[in-house]
Amino acid sequence: xxxxxxxxxxxxxxxxxxxxxxxxxxxxxxxxxxxxxxxxxxxxxxxxxxxxxxxxxxxxxxxxxxxxxxxxxxxxxxxxxxxxxxxxxxxxxxxxxxxxxxxxxxxxxxxxxxxxxxxxxxxxxxxxxxxxxxxxxxxxxxxxxxxxxxxxxxxxxxxxxxxxxxxxxxxxxxxxxxxxxxxxxxxxxxxxxxxxxxxxxxxxxxxxxxxxxxxxxxxxxxxxxxxxxxxxxxxxxxxxxxxxxxxxxxxxxxxxxxxxxxxxxxxxxxxxxxxxxxxxxxxxxxxxxxxxxxxxxxxxxxxxxxxxxxxxxxxxxxxxxxxxxxxxxxxx
Length: 332
Prior knowledge:
The chain is α/β, with parallel strands linked by helices. The chain is built from 11 helices and 13 strands.
């Protein structure tokens, strides 16, 4: 059965640009140190009072405008974020509130961190393949800057992240050789504590307390070396699996969108695959790590500046806390 085709893309990045030089005023670091370890030159930060709902809403608006449709034409929303606007309800429902929908629209919330977009894409593709929904809005929205640790203890993580949102409008493909050709996702819970933000959470009593704040549990912890090693291995093996499944040769791939966690990870994956580095997206240089929003932001940029054209085949690969990871093949 034909799967989901990308009908339109959209993205939104906050206007405030935070360069590595700006970051040096917040924590003890250098532009050289950040670029050598991550490839990041700048990122975007949201102002106080802005949340993931506003970012996601603006990205969704742009995707819908490009598709030439309204929110009332959408049968399902799939929202991905690891930075929810509120503990409950889901961020997607608040985005729908912003639209002022004339009808109710089912909304699925996906919480698979930086792999959320790929997990969400697989869900949307499956729904379209079986005919449950015909037009799906995917919104991936992330706002890290309000929750980072601006101290020297947290600088190795703080310098990596930025804010932004990406969106897709998906519909049934006209044939089996267009759209989402295949996806696969994985998770290994044995590594769940190697990349974690422990609080707030239901296990804490009370959920928010001076004790958890003093213990810095609300800031993320990352075993960087283990993440790097597993990210490269997971992305390479899942891409190889997807290419074998679809019968597509790596030489026929026009572009590669890896999750923008670290430019060095992307370069290492491309080297293993013998894929030209000039065809590997490196939007991390401008936006930092926007978690689940990284890939859809990159896709929107590439579509709008002509790097991706109709008929092009591209790869997606992600890796995230959990550990979760996966890959997909799309013919635009």
